[in-house]
Amino acid sequence: MRPTAKFSISFGLVTIPVAAYNATDSSASVSFVRIHTADGGRVRNQPVCSVEGVEISPDEIGRGYRPGDGDTVVPLSDEDLDALPLPTAKTLTILAFVAGGDIDPLQMGKGYYLGIDSPAAAKPYVLLREAMERHQRVGLGKIALHGRETLAMIRPMEGALVMQVLLWPHQIRPMDGVLPERQVEVHANEVEAAETLMDSFGALSEDDVHDHYREALEEIVAAKLAHREPHFEAGEEPPAGGVMDLMAALQDSVRAARKSRGEDEEGEPARSTARSGRGTAKSTAKKGTAKTSTAKKTAAKKTAAGETTAKKSAAKKSAAKTTAAAKKTSGRGGRRAG
């Protein structure tokens, strides 16, 4: 990266020469060009002189300042701006160290990475970073960037120093007409339900911070160039309609959030299908074992009953034979006696 500005950080009697690098890339965002809808031609912004009515080349364009609301414009050259008696023109003087939470997020502007601009700046650079990390403070100061003075915040981040340009307090508009006109009462159980819903969201994923809009736009452009219909993955439609029952909506939202993460209604991990299957298999096996055991018992009973019946039948046959033999013997004896 190429630095966009070079200056020094003044920390008491310590001076740290630094170079500022753009921390954000606006070219990566979605942007459009203006076209003539009749023929698709580009509509460009041409620099035209309001006095002569002719187009002006870039090297003929300078700076001007308009005092008040009138039409008077005072030309200002680079030499005029360099002659401004501002210590912030080349130096960011830290005026105070405050807690990061004391800075209004509405004041946050463009961010810059700050790197050392000379080998001698390495030690004071690390010293300032370590002191702010341990003290949990950020530095506030002023710096002149791109021809204007601005507030700036310096904070440590991942082993480096980062500068955040801040808007002046008078640049923050008042909230007139923003707040509800009548007093709204929120019950304690509704606040608790909202907090439960907040806890159920979990952490951000990579997909959450992905620019899906840019991808969808590129697909539409590619489809138009290929004379085809765009292809999009089927997404889940957000619920439509007004919220009639706030508590019901909060509770349904909690259940939906937990379900999306594979949790049950109590927030516990839901039982997997595999575990359920194993439980069913074990139950089926137990039932099969019980049936087998019952069958064996029944067979054993039938076998024992059969053996008993067979024994009784054999005993009857034996008794019949004995009786028959006795009768024969008795008959022979009677005949002999006669």
Report on the architecture of this protein:
The chain is an alpha+beta fold and 338 residues long. It is built from six helices and nine strands; from the N terminus they run ββββαββαβββαααα. A hairpin with an 8-residue loop joins strand 3 and strand 4. The longest helix has 65 residues. It is extended, with a radius of gyration of 46 Å. The termini are far apart. The C terminus is likely disordered.
Shape descriptor: extended
Distance between the termini: 147 Å
Mean of residue pLDDT values:
78
Can you write the helix and strand succession as a string? EEEEHEEHEEEHHHH
Unreliable residue runs = 273-296, 302-311, 319-338
Strand order within the widest beta sheet: 1-2-6-9-8-7-5
Q: Per CATH, what is the topology of the domain at 1-25 and 85-173?
A: Ku70, Chain: A, Domain 2
Highest CATH level, the class of the domain at 1-25 and 85-173: Mainly Beta
Specify the biggest β-sheet. Answer: 7 strands, mixed, barrel
- How does CATH name the architecture of the domain at 1-25 and 85-173? Beta Barrel
| Helix coverage percent | 25-40%
Structural class: alpha+beta
Quaternary arrangement of the chains shown? single chain
How many β-strand stretches? Answer: 9
Radius of gyration (CA) equals 46 Å
Proportion of beta-strand residues? 15-25%
Enumerate how many helices there are, as a single number: 6
